[in-house]
Amino acid sequence: MFADVYLRRYRGQRLRPSDESAQTPRHGALQLAHVGTGGPGCTVLTLQAVNNHTERGKLLCLYEPVIIGLGNGWLTFRGFESLAITDGGTVSFVQEWRCRVTERARCG
């Protein structure tokens, strides 16, 4: 499913409505997968670049996503994003994606 994704938070803090609506959406294919072997693993929602289906084509990742809103052509997900920090570790923040479903892929 192709979508334009608008981020609703920055490092866990909700964006002001004016900042949220002013951002340029990220466009790609939404893909849901369960990752992990030998343990409980986790569910990951990714936004994949239209013209790059490799690991490098992942534009965004949302871990343990849940649908918190549903409308005519819109889905809103809440989950966690993971960011690398300087000591080589990662830190997670709550993130929300507002996704506008599009009919077809757009490149560029």
Q: What number is the mean pLDDT?
A: 89
Helix content: under 10%
**Low-confidence parts, pLDDT < 50 over ≥5 residues?**
none
**Structural class estimated from helices and strands:** mainly beta
Order the strands across the largest sheet as they lie in space.
1-4-5-6-7-8
Order of helices and strands: EEEHEEEEE
Question: Overall 3D geometry?
Answer: globular
Task: State the end-to-end distance.
Answer: 17 Å
Number of helices: 1
Description:
The chain is mainly beta. The protein has one domain. The chain has one helix and eight strands; from the N terminus they run βββαβββββ. The model has no long low-confidence stretch (mean pLDDT 89).
